[in-house]
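User: Casein kinase II subunit alpha. Structure?
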Amino acid sequence: MARVYADVNATLGPGWYDYESLKIEWNVPDRYEIIRRIGGGKYSEVFEGIDLSNEEECVIKVLKPVAKKKIKREIKILRNIAGGPNVISLLDVIYDQNSLSNSLVMEFVLNSDWRDIYRIMSEVEIKYYIFQLLKALDFVHSRGIMHRDVKPANIMFDRERRKLKLIDWGLAEFYHPGTEYHPRVGSRYFKSPELLVAYKLYDYSLDLWCVGCILASLIFRREFFFRGRDNDDQLVKIVKALGSECFERYLAKYDLTLRSDNPEFLNSYVKQPWTRFICTDARHLATPDVLELIDKLLRYDHQERLTAAEAIGHAYFNVVRLQTPSNPAECFSDSGFYSA
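Assistant: Predicted structure:
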């Protein structure tokens, strides 16, 4: 059972979480014009568009053919979290009779590509970025929802305006204690240990593993901190860093059996100190506070990981919590935060 927000959906009731009974009224796409393709993946193609009724930019997410209940789930979740901190807004739902396609119209946010920024973000930017991500996650977890695909590609960050939005809720799901969920979610480099060993009784904490991976990437200047060739190799990379002893205790605690033919699991690995991963040119980033935070997020045992609220309260973010202007861009000068 999740350590926090375990009973949210039971308290709010079926009207909150029962997406299969959702009735959707689809609008026509006439008021929108596609400008250019900006991304896509297994489940959708994403375009920059214009709302012709007000000339405002928007994002049009054209859904590929998937189960209707999956579409309903995403829409239900987006409506439930509407107005929450740092979560993308759903503006409209449209159906095109010519292409027989369903689309979600979302707010537009300028984005700085992860590959362009992970090696150059300042310490204060890193703190702001992770803090705002944690705020989004604590909010959605408090609403009984797991994102299940937190990664840089699903975080829109406008560096100039200091605006962050967590996007792509297609894999998100409502959390019910004792429910077995499919472990084939998330993206490989950010998959938590419970997903890699097919533990189905997971909870919100899998999102916090992703935050730990992202923070480690920023502090140690790696595009992806754990970068496996496949799921087995991904787990090997984790065990080499966190150690075999703790991994074996984790498997035993949850009565899990590792099913893998990878011979590297036969070796014994000593847990590596986080200082081992520090880059010479980014040594100033690796403060004791942030190394402690990474350590408390990247734990095998999901019950031992910090919750989003606990992470927000960590000393690493003290300077962020002290600066709360109405305009986030006012937080920053060239060298860091402006003083109050």
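Confidence is low (pLDDT under 50) at residues 325-340. The longest helix spans residues 123-142.
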